[in-house]
Every structure is written in structure tokens, then in C-alpha cells.
Amino acid sequence: MQHSITLRNAMQVATMLLLAATVFTACSKSKDDNPGPGPSGHQLKVTITTTDLKPQEGDALSFLFVGSNLDGSTIDWKVDGQLKSNQTGITLEADVLSSGKQITVESAKSFAKAGIIINGGNRGTPYKFSYKVELDGKEVNNEQNITVSTNIFSRPHDYP
Question: In what order do the strands lie in the sheet with 113-121?
């Protein structure tokens, strides 16, 4: 049991570091001190599926979603059609992403910048997951059957 707690803590630290790096490098101050217009109209849709993911055996997988507009306001997300509002970001963990389940996450409003951080790890039998990302209705990432067989897996994405 100690191993899965240590792995989870390591993943949480890695997620927070990647999130901080994304937030601090995503925006820069405008030279004319004009923040520009609000949302630039981007929409994001992510479809996630897993195979052989067993959180009860120490498997870990999380998807962190964050987004903002040029005025600094955050955006809301929908998970399988249910609105998750008033949150800086949302995280889906292994218990929600259990094997065989397909989950869809969508931006509920238009955004200027968004990021996804994927973390995973296991201590036993490898598991697989797939995800597809659509930005403004066009497929921009489609990674199928990624095998997680190492202690820690991490992959950040920024959009647009």
C-alpha cells in the first residue's frame, strides 16, 4: 500500500509543477499594456478510454484540464455532459477513468489558452489508455493504446 501512496504523491507533485510551468509561461504582458479582447473562441473536446486500469492494484492515471481567457478568467468544463463550474481546473483520476469506460471532456465556454496534463504510473501489470483531442472541431491529437508499464508517465499539452 505504501508504494501506491508514494506513486500518487509523486504524480501530484509532477502535476503541480507542470501546471505551474504552464501558467507562468502561457501568457506574457502586452507591450502596449492592452490586454486585448476576451475569449478568442476556441473549443476543446477530449475523449478518453482505458484498458486494464486497476486503481485497486496501485495503477494511477490522471488527466488535469485547465483553461483561461486573455482577461484572466477561467473556463468551465463538461464531463460526460455534466457542467463542472467555478473551478480553476478539473482532474479526472483512475477511479473515474476505470477500465472500459469512455469519458468525454469538453470546454463549456470558448477559451484563449488551455492545457492538459496526463500523468500515469503502475506497480503491477501494464495498462493501456487512448485519448483523442479536438480543437475547434479538428483532430489535433489521437494517441491510441498507450501502454503504461513504468513507474511514472507524464505528458503535457497546450492549446492552441
Answer: 89-92, 60-68, 113-121, 153-159
Fold type of domain 2-26+42-159: Lipoxygenase-1 (2.60.60)
CB 67 within 8 A of CB 155: no
In the predicted structure, residue 72 carries a pLDDT above the cut 50: yes
Query: Residue 104 above 70 pLDDT?
Result: yes
**101 grid coordinates:** 469506460
- Domain locations in the chain as residue ranges: 2-26+42-159
Peptide bond into 160 cis (omega under 30): yes
The rounded distance, in Å, linking the Cα atoms of 109 and 51 is 30
158 neighbors 25 (Cβ within 8 angstroms): no
CA angle 69, 72, 76 (to 5 degrees): 55
State yes or no: pLDDT of 98 exceeds 80. Answer: yes
Instruction: Render the burial of 75-103: b for 16+ CB within 10 Å, e for the rest.
Output: bbbbbeeeeeeeeebbebebebbebeeeb
